[in-house]
Amino acid sequence: MPGVPLGLDALTLEDGHLFHDRKGRPRELPAARAPLADTHGHLTSFTRHDPSIAICRAALAGVRLLVVPVDPVDEVPRLFPTASAYLAWIDEQVERAAARLEECARHGLVPPVPAGYPDVPPLVERVRIVAGAHPYGAARLDKAALACLDELLASPRCVGVGEIGLDFGPYNELPADVQEAAFRRQLAIAREHGLPVELHLRDGQDPADHAAHDLAARVLAEEGVPAAGCDLHCFTDAPGVMAPFVELGCHIAFGGAATFKRSDDIREAAAACPARLLLSETDCPYMAPVPLRGKECEPAMVAFPAACVAEVREDAGVATRDETYAALWENACSLLG
Questions:
Q1: How far is CA 291 from each of CA 77, 113, 236, 257, rounded to the nearest angstrom?
Q2: Among candidate residues 25, 11, 37, the one with its CA nearest the CA of residue 253
Q3: Residue 166, Cβ neighbours under 10 Å: how many?
Q4: Beta-carbon contacts of residue 90 (< 8 Å; ≥ 6 apart)
């Protein structure tokens, strides 16, 4: 596109498109019927994206809320000297994105404003964080990690505790009781702070094995879902696995996996999920959606799973596309906004 601002070439707008597949072919941005929310997108794990450019691209795709998880056990000590250094870093990424968007606006490139939502603040005013120890780090949730977590939770950007939970998958090295103890500890912390939680739950490789979800549902029933709410991040299972969490009032977040060819069970869950509990996310930089498989996922790509969920629910006769888009946005704002 002629006139693309100097320094914004990484936006890949030279032909007027934000998205291109692995073969370089442009892919149309789905037309959103409401502002978009990525309720779980990592910014420190990119290998191909600049985080500030990713925020800028997300804004140009119509994203108006981005929730970024940060781990006080692994991510902060591995990448930053202190929690405050991480918080300063994310402030810097937002400031750089804001400057890029101002330059975009001078060249006529502006974020879309869906009809009926004229007063929604821009994305650079709605970048939030959730903080919590991933199950892989459950054994290292020590005094230093808890102090780091407290500092992150005190940030004005912080809207929740996460991602926390249970992982019995192939990369896990910790026994269930160690993970469960850290899970219960962080649920208590969320209640103490009046914050919602974002859960990471991964079962074993046997498709019939739902041990992580079963144990998590039992823990939530025993401990109580935090009054501020709960979100099953990156839900990739069938309606039956979802049902106990819906009964507990947990939100269910659908990402790129819902768009995959063989994900009929996930799409069935998206159709069955009550509207009041629907959420959209990317879990970037992982699991880029169709038609962008093989690319590094980024928050802007939440447009594709959101469109998929809206289409699935309309095809199932449970809601119009407008109703689903509105639910995805309003739920994200009420839980994590």
A1: 36, 24, 18, 12
A2: 37
A3: 26
A4: 43, 68, 127, 129, 157
Angle, helices 303-315 vs 321-336, to 10°: value is 130
Q: Pick from 42, 71, 36: which is nearest to 54 by CA? A: 42
CA dihedral for 172, 232, 215, 142, sign (positive or negative): positive
Q: How far apart are CA 15 and CA 334, in angstroms?
A: 37
> In the 3-class helix/strand/coil scheme, how is 25-89 assigned residue by residue?
CEECCCCCCCCEEECCCCCCCCCCCCHHHHHHHHHHCCEEEEEEEECCCCHHHHHCCCHHHHHHH
Q: Compute the Cα dihedral for 202, 287, 277, 73 and give only its sign.
A: positive
Length of the chain: 337
pLDDT, one tens digit per residue, over 279-336 is 999 999 999 999 999 999 999 999 999 999 999 999 999 999 999 999 999 999 999 9
- The two three-digit tokens of residue 257, written as one number: 């996996």
* Average of per-residue pLDDT values in the chain: 94
Could you report the per-residue pLDDT of 117-150, keeping only the tens digit for each?
999 999 999 999 999 999 999 999 999 999 999 9
Distance CA 284, CA 297 (A): 5
Q: How is residue 221 written in tokens?
A: 């029933």
pLDDT of residue 168: 97
- Closest by CA to 66, choosing from 193, 195, 159, is 159
At 298, list the tokens. 């980024």
